[in-house]
Amino acid sequence: MKNNRLIITSYRLPFAFETSSGSTTVKNSAGGLVTAMKSLDFSESAEKPVWVGCADFSRRTWEKYKHLVNDDFEYIPVFLERKIQQDFYNGFSNSVLWPLFHYFTTYVDYQERDFIAYQKANEAVSETVAQLLKPQDIVWVHDYHFMGLPRLIREKQPEATIGFFLHIPFPSYELIRTLPQKCKEYLLTGLLGSDLIGFHTTDYNIHFLQSVQLNLGVQHKIWKINYQNRLIQSDAFPVGINYSLYHDAYDQPDVVQEREALRNAYKGNKIIFSVDRLDYTKGVMQRLDALEAFFRQYPEWTERLTFILVVVPSRDEILKYGERKVMIEQAVGRINGKYGTLIWRPIVYRYGSVSFPQLVALYTACDVALITPIRDGMNLVAKEFVATRKDHRGVLILSEMTGAANELSTALHINPMDENEVAEKMRQALEMEPEEQARRIAIMQRRIKEYDVKKWATSFVESLLNMHTIQQIEPTP
Ligand code: F6P
After folding, report:
1. Whole-angstrom distance, CA of residue 428 vs CA of residue 422
2. ipTM of the complex
3. What is the pTM for the complete model shown?
């Protein structure tokens, strides 16, 4: 892969322009995807990797300020008409695919115009990619926004090397079945334009293969699909984190300072912590129900426990997200009113983002991390929490409905719907002996240290190149 050039496509470009008091600056994203892409070794390629994504800024802003953007990648923004962008992102991507793929069928709001916008957006990005493509390039398409893209690129460049990775669950065929036939075909044949299709877990892969078989009548054998004289591989590649970044942050001076401030502020109390994007899939309401059940069943914890709940704003133009915010705020107020005392609040709630040092301080100051999604493709918060615990303390309570539960085998697993089970596991976690905490954390750390984000990205690209080579040597009859 050293000689190849990488072309990445994702909905978001890994930076944002911020304007305040008349001056514009650039904020680089520190997300997992950027770290993963940077970890790949393309050192012998004569050209810089390229990143194609949708612009959330105007052409004018781009021309004026592109010189401020980092030069880690060559960035190519695709400018969509405003209405198309909205219907594509808020509409089909986040009001059809997102709820459906997370099993929230009643939240699906299918509108024909949104599906048309989705196709137009995929077409626009495919044209940009096809124009750039050279024979040695590797195209890596990310996520549910661009499920149509692999086929569209292949139609324009039949010999291209194309990989696709889905960052959310791929649901059971029964869910895919509910989509209009033209959508199912568009999405599935879109993915089959790839040489390699990656998912977080084997279950998601099996669901995908079943959907392909039942919808398109296409057979598969040992993770290989024979389709239109091409052989396509689909497999599980569980995404990891930058382990050392989180692990080493434990001793960073600003983290130490933030952690001490937190410990002082909650002296004498145990801390349970959670952080999520504001999303109905994350199970925040169920978590609050479980907390209420806990205080009902174990009143001896009154004035001895604080739950720090951080909710990060997300997709706020979509009604279902705004509604959720109101529901969470009402539940927090109700629980604090009912169980709090004149000198203590059970829940400390923050709606907003936290800095990296604050996040690591929260991960390392808490006694328990409580992660309860109803569905989650992977859940990197769980892995980050485990990685930060250099002190080998802390207990992870983790929903069995996350992709991460497969790997984090010594977490206390819960079903997020079962408030009594969650309350009981909270008690168990709060009373767990330090030796047992250390044993559990050490097992999970070994796993996520080895399968980190670099391993994820490297093994995906190596498998993609292998698959493409097999294709060239043994074309399927
Ligand atoms: O998990 C899927 C995902 O699209 C991530 O890639 C992304 O960080 C997250 O959801 C947030 O989504 P958005 O880009 O819509 O804010």
Report:
1. 10
2. 0.95
3. 0.96
